[in-house]
Amino acid sequence: MDAKKIEIIHKIQEMRNNRMSPDFVSLTKQGYTNGLLKAMIDEGLIRFAGIFSLMDKGEQVWLQTRNITKKQKNKFMLDTCAINNLHKLGLTVVLLEDFLDKELAEFYITHIQNDELNEWDDVEERKKATLLLAKIKPIVLPTESFIVGESRLGYAKLGDGEVLNEVINRRNMEKNIRDALIAETAILNNIILVTDDGPLTKVAKDKEVRITNSKNLFDFIRGGIFNEIQ
Predict the structure, then answer these.
(1) Which of 111, 135, 214, 226 could bond to 155 as cystine, CB 3.0-4.6 Å?
(2) Rounded to 5 degrees, what are φ and ψ at 196?
(3) Which of 121, 109, 108, 197 is nearest to 152 (CA)?
(4) Helix (H, G, I), strand (E, B) or coil at 77
(5) What whole-number distance in Å separates Cα of residue 223 and Cα of residue 91?
(6) Alpha carbon distance 162, 187 (integer Å)
(7) 128-146 burial, b for 16+ CB within 10 Å, e for fewer?
(8) 86 to each of 111, 168, 195, 229, how far by Cα in Å?
(9) To the nearest 10°, the Cα dihedral for 220, 222, 223, 224?
(10) Whole-angstrom Cα distance, residue 51 to residue 94?
(11) DSSP secondary-structure letter at 128?
C-alpha cells in the first residue's frame, strides 16, 4: 500500500486517540490532499461523517503497521525572536517535558541565536530564555556561510554563499545578515524555520521553505495540530 495512505491512517487514529477531530480542513493543513482522502474513502479504508474514522479495512492496515511505523519528527530552527516569544506565550519547563517525552520534534539553532541572546539588555528575560533553551537542548548547527565580523570559527562553514546572497538580495537584508545566515542554514538543511520576523518570513516564503511562527509552535507543544504558514 502507498506509504502516504498508511501515514494518513495512522494520523487519523492518532488524532482520535488524542480526542481530536480529524476532518478535511485539519488534514489538508498537514499536507494531505482532498483527492487522496476521497480516494481512500472510495477504497473503503476510511469514512467521513463530519470527522474521519477508520473502516475495518483501514483498521487492519493500522494494526499491521503500527509497530513498524516510526514517528516522524518535525525539525525546527528557532530564531532568537521566536525563543523570546515562546516564553511570553507561556511556554514552561513542565509543558516542554511533556512534549519532549513524545519525541515529536528536534530543535536546532546556530551560534547566531546564542550570540544574540547574550546581547540582550534585559537580564531577567535573558535568563528565562536561556533556561528554556537548556530544557529544549537544541542541536547547534554551523551556519552554511562564513561572514567576517558575524561568524565564529568552528561554527560556520566556508560555503559558496549562493543561497545566502539570494536571501539577502530578495529582501534587501544587508542590514540583517544574521537573519540571512539563520535562514540559509534552515533552507540548506531542510528544517522548518520558526520566526515572527516579517521580512524573514517573506524570504522563507520566496524560497518555498517550510516556515511557522511561535504561536503555531506553542499550540503544537500544548498538544494541538502543527500548522505551517502557507
Answers:
(1) 111
(2) -115, 15
(3) 109
(4) strand
(5) 12
(6) 12
(7) bbeebbeebebeebbbbbb
(8) 19, 26, 10, 17
(9) -50
(10) 31
(11) H
For the chain, the domains span 3-69, 74-222
Q: Tell me which residue of 128, 167, 123, 126 sits closest to 144, measured CA to CA.
A: 167
- Joined grid coordinates for residue 129: 530564555
> What are 170-188's pLDDT values in tens digits?
666 556 788 888 888 988 8
What are the backbone dihedrals phi and psi of residue 77, each rounded to the nearest 5 degrees, phi first?
A: -100, 110
CATH superfamily of 74-222: 5'-nuclease (3.40.50.1010)
Nine-digit cell string for 203: 524570504
Which H helix or E strand runs over 109? Answer: strand 105-109
Residue type, 202: K
Count of beta carbons in the 10 Å neighbourhood of residue 13: 20
